[in-house]
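Q: Structure tokens for this one, please.
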Amino acid sequence: MSIFEERKIDTHCHLLDPEIFPYAPDVSYKPAGQEIGGGSYFSHVMDTYGVQHALLVGPNSGYNLDNRCLLDAIKQGHGRFKGIIVVKNDISKEELAVYKSQGVVGIAMNVALNGVAYYANTQRLLKDLADLDMFIQYQVEHDQLSQFVPWVLDAGVKVLVDHCGRPTVANGLSQSGFQAMLNLGKQKLAHIKLSGFYKFSKEGYPFSDTDAYQDAILSNCGLEQCIWASDWPYLKAPYRLDYGPMLKLVEKRFTANQRQTLFWDTPKKLFGF
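A: Here is the predicted structure, written as tokens:
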């Protein structure tokens, strides 16, 4: 069986459909051209590559706090999609519960974009997410994750870490942010997305300089703490990327049985598909 035919769940992708859901007027970046793709088109992409389900992530680019495009796709997908949304830091637990009833499983904090200080007072939000059995998803870079570890431990909230934690390749495996992520994974307190290599690689495809970081994640945290994601449609990518070649990287690294765990068993259980 081709890797393209193996059933899989994509745990990080974005929908952008400005013709139907216009971009928010105050966003700093408005995706265009090949960065645009709505739910209908992405469903065809999924069918092409054997993707049964997808976890949609609200993009700060284009939409920021406007989750209408994502929520509409979940509704129209009839169980095919679930969502991670972007919200205000002071959102109430009641509002979160409403989102959960609409197929949202967690919220995203884009620390790499907004900075640590932007999320300085989110302890109550983390505890609300924990009470609702929802996820906090961090997109961080460099050593940023270290700032949030005491809070997530105190709250007992389920954690997702985007894109291998986006380490600084030049700083090696011992850098504090990467080690903080590994420690959460070791304790089974976080799941790590093996994705977004172009966001921290200095070499480009096939991103060979990220291999040591992927190896460290797998050896320290175990395959069961990892999930796969495409990061489609590759917002702000500095060069062309495509779904198929990204899957081929997974085929080179993992056996068919390992891919069953990574692509299907873990995310299916984790997100309740």
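A few notes: The two ends are 23 Å apart (CA to CA). The beta strands are 8-13, 51-57, 81-85, 104-110, 135-139, 158-161, 190-194, 226-228.
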